[in-house]
Design goal:
Length: about 550
């Protein structure tokens, strides 16, 4: 049948809600037709709405959705006019391929759609899994969108004439035998929620009243939310976990080192040297397997002055061959100031961390620095009362300084500790009197001698004099006089003092040549006279502000 150029249906439609006997279809009673039917009220079939979309192809000769054969005639039904030709049927129905989703084989369609057969229960279900299947589904065209077998045709309860039925391709719920235009046909909206839509004859061709598949379920965001929560906990409240994860992932040889928690021999030595390089004395001590006993010079202040005199730089470490899992030797190269150093460090494993067998060098300075209480200091630490025979030092540069204004120090006053096993160059210190000491001592000697020359005692406080008068006379001290001989005086401006003993740099002396005459009478009036030769002057400057001067005669 060819498709007309346009469609202008001329069949009048009844008003909504009224039946049209001329267009109605004979009603169908599923019970067998008796020889004499009782007279029953006639219910005309609803008018076929023309506003429904066409199936797009001619109705098959056999109604595939008829659930029962149509009786030959209904004596009580009015004759229905021939169904109008489907104006949209433009092509014959294609041969239907096998339905891959059909759950049951389809029975052969009867050759005569109007031949009455044994009555069939229109509500019988073909399988328990399909509550709406009233009969076995016929072979249907392949439907790529069908998720289950095609539902039973709810309008199969009525027989239709063999003319083309433009609405035969649609199905309706089985519990609804007929409907009126404009009225909903699904009394229970949830009854068919799981039923797949009816397949159109051709893809893209829809049907009015067709059930639509439920919208695809959106993917939940629970997994994403859970991941965000986990990350937030790790970043905000999981600081310990983040720290653990960081230190597990860092390289145990080249990565950051926590003092006292080195995870490789190289890291232990490198971390120790880097702590010294940064002036962190307390951190450097944490790499020691055994803490040093004498820590007088193992402070941050001492280390700071050491770095100021010679910074540690260019650190590189290499583990020696032959190292074991418990002990290793690491060769380190670095610079202390301008001096290049190559040293070996022994490290051992203890409680999963590596420690240096020694982090300090014990240096005996008692032979180089023999003086005490003269104002010497080492990198800012006073040496007064310090046991220098057991002093311990980090690798670095150390400088001996003097804060006594009466003395000067010359010679090598600096030494470098290269490593814990290194032997520093010996000190070569020489002390001498300062120029200010010379002046101070000259003035002190003059003042002292001038004072003694005015004393009224035969034995002066300066250390020169007599023990008594010859013959046992009693001296009359009021008659005693002390005078300088010609060419002698109390002027010591030309006198040069030197340290009396290098082992005791708090005493100085000088050679002098001074003649002093003395005269006295005894209580009997007898006159005595003599001379005193002063040849030596001593100065004790243990208290530099108050030197004590004595003379020898």
């Amino acid at each position: 049948m060819s498709q007309p150029d346009s469609f202008n249906p001329q069949i009048p439609l009844p008003p909504s809600g009224e039946s049209n006997p001329s267009a109605g279809l004979p009603s169908f009673d599923p019970t067998p037709a008796p020889s004499a039917l009782p007279e029953t009220p006639f219910v005309p079939a609803p008018a076929v709405p023309l506003d429904q979309p066409s199936v797009g192809q001619p109705a098959p000769a056999v109604d595939p959705y008829a659930t029962q054969p149509v009786p030959a005639a209904d004596p009580y039904a009015e004759a229905a006019p021939a169904a109008p030709t489907d104006p949209y049927a433009t092509q014959p129905a294609p041969v239907a391929p096998a339905d891959p989703y059909a759950t049951q084989p389809a029975p052969a369609v009867p050759a005569d759609p109007y031949a009455q057969a044994a009555p069939v229960d229109p509500y019988a279900q073909a399988a328990p899994t399909d509550p709406y299947a009233a009969q076995a589904a016929p072979a249907a065209p392949a439907d790529p969108y069908a998720t289950q077998p095609a539902p039973a045709d709810p309008y199969a309860a009525q027989a239709y004439p063999p003319a083309a039925d433009p609405y035969a391709a649609q199905g309706f719920p089985p519990d609804q035998a007929q409907f009126a235009p404009g009225q909903p046909y699904a009394p229970d909206p949830g009854a068919y929620a799981t039923q797949a839509p009816y397949a159109p004859a051709y893809p893209g061709q829809g049907y009015s009243g067709q059930l639509t598949p439920p919208p695809a379920k959106k993917k939940g965001k629970g997994g994403l939310i859970a991941l965000i929560v986990i990350l937030a906990v790790a970043l905000i409240g999981g600081g310990g976990f983040a720290a653990w994860w960081f230190f597990i992932r860092v390289d145990p040889v080249t990565g950051p080192v926590t003092p006292g928690e080195a995870r490789s021999p190289q890291a232990a030595v490198r971390g120790y040297l880097e702590a010294l390089q940064a002036g962190r004395a307390s951190d450097a001590l944490l790499y020691a397997q055994t803490q040093p006993t004498n820590q007088t010079f193992l402070t941050g202040d001492v280390l700071s002055q050491s770095l100021a005199a010679g910074a540690i730089s260019n650190i590189a470490v290499t583990k020696d061959a032959g190292s074991t899992k418990q002990a290793a030797t690491v060769t380190a190269t670095y610079n202390i100031g301008s001096q290049a150093v190559t040293a070996s460090y022994d490290v051992t494993l203890s409680n999963k961390h590596w420690f240096l067998s020694a982090v300090t060098d014990q240096v005996d300075l008692s032979y180089d620095i023999m003086w005490d209480n003269i104002g010497l200091s080492l990198n800012g630490v006073s040496l007064d009362g310090v046991d220098l025979s057991t002093a311990e030092f980090f690798p670095g540069t150390y400088q001996v300084t003097l804060t006594n204004d009466m003395l000067t120090m010359t010679g090598n006053s600096q030494f470098v500790v290269t490593d814990p096993q290194g032997l520093p160059d010996p000190l070569d210190l020489t002390l001498d009197l300062s120029s200010s000491a010379q002046t101070s001592f000259q003035q002190a000697a003059k003042a002292t001698l001038d004072g003694c020359m005015g004393e009224q005692d035969i034995m002066t406080s300066c250390g020169f004099g007599f023990t008594g008068l010859e013959g046992g006379g009693t001296p009359d001290l009021s008659t005693l006089t002390w005078t300088f001989e010609s060419g002698s005086s109390s002027d010591f401006s030309g006198t040069t003092f030197t340290l009396s003993d290098m082992s005791d740099p708090t005493a100085a002396d000088a050679s002098i040549d001074i003649w002093i005459d003395v005269a006295i009478r005894d209580t009997n009036g007898d006159r005595y006279s003599d001379s005193v030769f002063l040849y030596w002057v001593d100065v004790d400057f243990s208290d530099p502000a108050n030197p004590v001067v004595t003379f020898s005669s």
